[in-house]
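re: ur question from earlier - yeah i can do the single chain one, its not a big deal. heres the input i used so u can compare w yours
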Amino acid sequence: MKKLRVGLVGLGNIGKTHLLYLKDMDRVELAGVSDIDEQRTTFFAKETGAEAYLDYRDMFENAALDAVIVAVPHYDHPKVAIEAFQRGIHVLCEKPIAVHVNDAVTMVDAYEEARNKQPDLQFGLMFQERTFAHYRKIKDILEGGELGELVRVTWINTTMFRSQAYYNSGGWRATWAGEGGGILVNQCPHTLDMYQWLFGMPQTISAHAHIGKYHEIEVEDEVTAYFEHDGGMIGHLIVSTAESPGTNRFEIVGENGKLVYENDKLLFYRNRQSMLAFLRETNLSFGQVENSCTEVAIPNTEPTGHRVVAEKFFNRILDGEGELTAYGHEGVHSVMLANGIMLSSFNRAAVPVPIDADAYEAKLKSLINGSNFVKTVQADVKVDMEDSFGR
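and the output i got, formated as tokens:
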């Protein structure tokens, strides 16, 4: 049986998560691991039987890879992926695709150029939350048109609590130069991806992002955003890394009713008739549309998570069949939302979508060059990535 020779670049917290499923995949051989930390690389190479490389370019040159998983800090995603594309290596990249839109577009363009020589080259993204059953059920309801014309989406997701110790666990974390932002580029890419996956991109973004409001960091830890969509639908997004207990409440309102996802339950409030038609036609001043509420069954029989995304990626390479969970070009959308939120907050004004990517990149560079923030780093911080998945 042919095995896919796979490399892993980045052996930090999320890289170790990938090692957990890679070690027992029948159709995959972990051919190489790479990290700039020599002790870490040597340890995991010995643990997995893979070759150790301190420079990912050496691994690309010598390990005869078919595919690579990119799990390095965000700024390095484009350069690692582009190098792989130029060598004809398939890429599965961690979220976000890049820190800013220009880098994301450059990454996608490099992939498309590489496909001119290798049409079957694959570029996937690790948006594993698309595999979650409740999101798949919500998407199914929306695509079925059961809610009719959508009016409002409100998502309060403050379950991403992070302590100061978490931010102190790495010198690159929560800095403009090291991470390129806070909650929007680290904890929220899945939330932003899910928003655009379900509702598409807005026309306009208005937002307030609070910098270091609760933590000693130089980036945002609390955000409130307002999206305006073509056709009139509005969206609200409220996220924070400082609320405990947090809330994850997702309301989707359409003319035919309302979906509410909270506490692992999906409720469907069904209107007996369109509320838009009712408000136009009724002669009752204070009338209400008759409705009923049912809990929507969420099938929980299919596997979810990182392994599922990786298996689809590997199977498509090996068999030439099936769809990826998320394709590379889709990653630009969540970065566009993140950058647009920050640009609106910095400018204290609404910004159109697509945003002015050059303006945001210039602002980011000015924040990096003007930073005098001194980062505290703790060596004794306990980080268990399983605590952050699926919240």
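Residues 385-391 have pLDDT under 50 and may be disordered. not sure if urs matches, ping me
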